[in-house]
Write a structure and sequence with these properties.
Elements lengths: L3 E12 L1 H8 L7 H16 L9 E12 L4 E6 L7 H14 L4 E4 L6 H11 L27 E3 H6 L9 H8 L13 H6 L3 H25 L5 H18 L4 H8 L6 H5 L7 H8 L1
Parallel strand pairs: 1-4, 4-5
Antiparallel strand pairs: 1-2, 2-3
Helix pairs in contact: 1-2, 6-8, 8-9, 8-10, 9-10
Length: 286
Amino acid sequence: MSTVSWLIFDVEAVADGDLISRIKYPDDSLNAAEAIARYRETLLAERGSDFIAHTYMLPISVAIAKVADDYSLIDIVVLDDSEYRPATITQHFWNGWRHYNRPTFVTFNGRGYDIPLMELSAYRYGLSLPDWFNIDARTYEQSRNRYNTQRHLDLMDLISNFGATRVQGGLNVLANIIGKPGKTGIDGSQVQDVYDAGGVQKINDYCICDVLDTYFVFLRTRVLIGKLSLEQEQQLVQQTKEFLSENQKERPAFAHYLEHWGDWQESQAEEEQPIESSQEQDEGEK
């Protein structure tokens, strides 16, 4: 069995209406649904967006790709599949990280949302995580240190030079650049409404597709930093496509992803045009 070296994951969450009711509307006796609706209306009026901060959210779907040391995809799982209980999801998430000997987390903007949400969920449910909150270690060895990419590699940090630039279009753009689907179904702003309508499975499928996009973007960044050749990356892409095809009957999300699949073509157009150094370009212009 291959060793799991990377855990590529995505989290979708829904609002904790009871908490919102207690904090935001303590004198109004609102039930959970009423509190969420009023808070979203207020946010939309004040900010133009009804996005609710992670401090008021509960994880309802966590999809994880298990990736081997050679960057091959081992499997994709959804935590607490069929039940989707926030407390159980949280326990499985952190226990799984330990079970596989603390592999590197890989996310896209996970430092700004997914990881803080799962940390706060651990706080909520009384979990002890001294190996993650190792605050007595040297600064650069602490798991939560922003620059400790051995513990958590946030691909948005990598692409943006740790926030020096903005990644306009986010994961959707990066996936599309390399021919992968990006956003083809629901998006994060619709999760609450889909959940309220009983569409948890639809949310899970969306979460899985986001993880697949993140995996393929992760592979291309391995080419970018010299850990994989382009040929090796393309072999892994084809290998993963075969994995999705073989398992699409059991996983509707895989079938959806394959329906929107695209192959990266730029290598064929550029393969005969080696990059010149700046000095060579200057000499050619003289």
